[in-house]
Design goal:
Blueprint: H1 20-24, H2 28-34, E1 79-81, E2 99-100, E3 102-104, E4 120-125, E5 144-145, E6 151-154, E7 157-162, E8 167-173, E9 177-184, E10 187-195, E11 204-214, E12 217-225, E13 231-239, E14 245-250, E15 253-255, E16 259-262, E17 266-273, E18 277-286, H3 290-300, H4 306-321, E19 324-327, H5 331-344, E20 349-350, E21 358-359, E22 365-366, E23 374-375, E24 377-378, H6 379-382, H7 386-393, H8 395-412, E25 418-420, E26 423-424, H9 433-442, H10 450-461, H11 468-474, H12 485-506, H13 509-518, H14 522-525, E27 526-527, E28 532-533, H15 563-566, H16 574-581, H17 584-594, E29 612-613, E30 616-617, H18 636-650, H19 666-675, E31 678-679, E32 687-690, E33 697-701, E34 707-713, E35 721-727, E36 730-731, E37 736-738, H20 739-743, E38 746-753
Parallel strand pairs: 34-38
Antiparallel strand pairs: 1-3, 2-5, 4-10, 6-7, 7-8, 8-9, 9-18, 10-17, 11-12, 11-16, 12-13, 13-18, 14-15, 14-17, 19-33, 20-23, 21-22, 24-25, 25-26, 27-28, 29-30, 31-32, 32-37, 33-34, 35-36, 35-38
Length: about 775
């Protein structure tokens, strides 16, 4: 087994470890506040999977995860927001911080760019302020200090004490409505600030509005630009106590009356409160209108029972978490696993009103389209594992997600690349919605128009942007004409393989042959002399000089990586890559080097390249499939070795427990699947390659009352190698299983051991193959 000293860049921060029990053993006064309402759902304690979720995992280091209160795939994510001090505050919150500006209604989780943070609401007392302050003078306004020992979080619930004001804050949510509960001290100037100017990261307001509709209702809009170039958010706020005084600020001055509009609108509600008095707020959001936001409140939370909403949120999380029931003697593994499920079910998010109405990418309003519309598609990340996971544990949502993508195609002429709040950001490379749409079709999902789906993948691959014109003309992208040319071409080839298979299923042999040829484009980039993928210039020659370690963020030849990492990005044709390398022995020798090679990436390397094992980077998605590739040359035991190391070292139950950006669920989806012993190397092939199960047992609930159970006998941190396997009681000699086998229900059993069985999976017929389901 590999030793820690053989690997590089674990990058953990010291002194931040703590247990859930310690963190939740809060001071007595805080506990009394936290227990004001029932904290548990109606499910029996032994079925409460939320107790294993620690939302703080990934809030430190570069995890960038959301901390706050939400429901699975919910449109709102109310949570705490710090001053944004840099890249590690992309979600608005970082574990290292101690100053809170307030509680925004929308947050991203795990992204590498910051946005949202809309409608910042903050309770405070004393002198009137319209802003929290600023980074240079952080406590010059209404911002407050807070402490982790006066803070708690669980799925669907968040609580904190604002130390400067002796105010307790609780948050929970439904799908489209945030529910805030503030407990004030005795004070004649107890205030609630509503700030429409401040956002997170790239966000910048364009125009905002706040209007008081009656003594308990305020509403308005926030139009902004940033990562989402043209975001239209409408909101409504209903307070449980009639407004005693409203003061407004806009365009750098105070505004009289009950309405304000401008780039920097802020309002402050003032109350005279008794000690321990509670004021509740319900904040509805809508992409359509503030009237719709108010209807969302009336439809989803028509009462003022905070404990009921919290309990319902917890039940919703339990329903999703219980879809995989695990058994393991290590409690920290349970926390890591169920927190990973929690993270994987935050996005995509609903982007419609309670009645189904939504605003399209074309900015038109669509009523009752017949499906739930979603946004926040981080597809360059999530096509690899999170969407394949959805086809197993979220089958009821897959058709809606595909229909959302097809609607985006109809509105903007191509499938989403990285879609955010109805906006195409074009972030990252490739057209990674293609394998997601194709995979759903291959697996028999039929709640969408298959002809439109086929049309969409073809049209998306045939536009002339981001080097595709060169792909069509030359079969490669010249590095002197297009940045990140190698990464783009390799990602296009992966998707083109899926289009070729789609065309075969649709009976279009001409397109099948065309896209099969395009899927081989990676061959042009392979240099047989160095055996690396290399950038090609307009004259057809490789770029010189060449350094396989070098990485230049955003403007180099590789996207958030280097040639060492991208040389293996051929998940759709591993056997073809093996041939290019010179055969199995040459491939394996080179692949061994991948996990030990060290070199200087340069000063301009991407910060995303983390979790290094040699040059393998678990902290960034292009490497996620790679360790499984040993199985293709009959050395599955080496895959087991690497996969178990990654799970044990790069996934923990601590705040810094993610080695890189969560990326809207992908980092966690990798762990969920890998911990059960299998992973989709080619995300649209329906084949899952065997690794090394960290879990002792996992049972997946499937449609029609079926279950698929994985059992790892004699499993331990030492016994990491598969000695033998059985599927439904029959010997399993091959090193893969299929989607059909999982969804049919059954039992996969591993016999584990401390030394490798080097004969397991060595036969050519036992190795992974590209195999689509029989459904189509």
């Amino acid at each position: 087994m590999f030793k820690l000293s053989n690997f590089a860049d674990k990058k953990r921060k010291a002194g931040l470890g703590f247990s859930l029990m310690v963190r939740w053993a809060l001071p007595a006064l805080f506990l009394l506040s936290a227990c004001a309402g029932p904290q548990n759902s109606s499910a029996p304690a032994d079925e409460d999977y939320t107790k294993y979720v620690d939302p703080y995992i990934g809030t430190d280091y570069h995890g960038h995860v959301f901390l706050g209160a939400n429901v699975p795939f919910g449109a709102v994510q109310p949570g705490p927001t710090n001053y944004i001090k840099g890249w590690d505050w992309c979600s608005g919150y970082h574990y290292s911080d101690s100053i809170m500006t307030g509680f925004s209604q929308l947050h991203l989780s795990g992204t590498g760019i910051g946005d949202l943070g809309d409608v910042l609401i903050t309770p405070y007392t004393g002198e009137l302020f319209f802003t929290p302050g600023n980074i240079k003078e952080p406590l010059s306004g209404y911002a407050s200090m807070y402490s982790h020992d006066r803070e708690a979080a669980e799925p669907g619930f968040y609580e904190v004490d604002l130390l400067d004001y002796d105010i307790n804050v609780k948050l929970t949510a439904s799908e489209r409505v945030s529910f805030h509960q503030y407990t004030f001290p005795e004070n004649e100037n107890s205030r609630i600030a509503i700030n429409l100017e401040l956002g997170i990261g790239w966000d910048s307001p364009v125009n905002t509005k706040l209007i008081q509709l009656n003594d308990t209702t305020l509403a308005g809009f926030r139009h902004s630009k940033g990562w989402a170039e043209d975001q239209e958010l409408y909101y409504a706020i209903v307070v449980s106590k009639p407004v005693e005084k409203l003061e407004l600020h806009a365009n750098d001055k105070e505004i009289s009356g009950t309405e304000a509009e401008g780039r920097d609108v802020a309002g402050v509600l003032t109350y005279n409160t008794k000690n321990g008095e509670t004021i509740n707020l319900k904040v509805g959001i809508s992409p359509v209108s503030h009237e719709a936001a108010l209807k969302n409140i009336e439809s989803e939370i028509p009462h003022w029972n905070f404990a009921q909403v919290q309990s319902e949120a917890k039940e919703k999380w339990n329903k999703e978490l219980s879809k995989i029931k695990i058994e393991d003697s290590d409690e920290s593994v349970k926390r890591t696993f169920y927190t990973s499920m929690y993270h994987s079910f935050i996005a995509p998010i609903l982007f419609n009103d309670h009645d189904g109405t939504y605003r399209g990418t074309d900015k038109k309003i669509y009523k009752n389209p017949g499906f739930d519309n979603y946004s926040v598609f981080s597809l360059w990340d999530t096509y690899r594992a999170n969407h394949p996971l959805f086809t197993i544990v979220q089958p009821e949502k897959v058709n809606d997600m595909i229909n959302s993508m097809l609607a985006i195609y109809e509105h903007q002429g191509k499938l989403p690349v990285w879609h955010l709040m109805g906006n195409e950001t074009n972030c990252m490379v490739g057209y990674s919605a293609v394998p997601v749409v194709a995979d759903a079709f291959f697996k028999g999902f039929n709640g969408f128009d298959e002809k439109l789906a086929f049309e969409s993948v073809v049209a998306t691959s045939m536009n002339d942007e981001f080097g595709l014109d060169y792909i069509k003309e030359r079969g490669y992208i010249p590095a002197d004409k297009e940045k990140e040319s190698v990464s783009k071409a390799l990602e296009y080839a992966i998707s083109d393989w899926a289009i070729a298979r789609f065309a075969e299923k649709m009976g279009d042999t001409e397109k099948a042959e065309y896209y099969q040829k395009r899927s081989k484009a990676y061959e042009k980039y392979f240099d047989p002399e160095t055996r690396f993928m290399r950038p090609i210039m307009s004259d057809g020659n490789f770029r010189e000089p060449f350094n396989p370690f070098k990485s230049v963020h955003e403007v180099g030849d590789f996207t958030e990586g280097n040639s060492w990492q991208y040389t293996w990005l051929v998940p759709h044709d591993v056997n073809g890559l093996i041939e290019l390398m010179g055969g199995e022995d040459a491939f394996e020798a080179k692949f061994d080097s991948f996990f030990v090679a060290t070199g200087d990436m340069g000063e301009k390397a991407s910060a995303d390249i983390t979790g290094l094992i040699g040059q393998y980077a678990q902290g960034n998605e292009p490497s996620h499939h790679a360790a499984y590739m040993y199985a293709y040359v009959g050395s599955q035991w080496k895959t087991a070795e690497k996969i178990r190391y990654i799970m044990e070292e790069f996934y923990t139950d601590q705040p810094d427990g993610l080695i890189g950006n969560e990326d809207c669920g992908q980092m966690s989806a990798w762990y969920i699947l890998s911990s059960m012993g299998f992973y989709p190397v080619n995300p649209s092939s329906s084949v899952f390659v065997l690794g090394s199960p960290e879990l002792d047992k996992a049972t997946i609930d499937l449609p029609e009352g079926k279950t698929f159970t994985m059992v790892a006998h004699n499993n331990s941190s030492e016994n990491i190698y598969i000695q033998s396997a059985q599927l439904n009681g029959n010997p399993l000699e091959r090193t893969y299983i299929t989607y059909d086998e999982i969804m049919s229900g059954g039992k996969l059993e591993f016999e584990m051991g401390a030394t490798p069985n080097k004969e397991f999976g060595t036969a050519p017929e036992a190795r992974p193959i590209e195999r689509l389901p029989e459904t189509r």
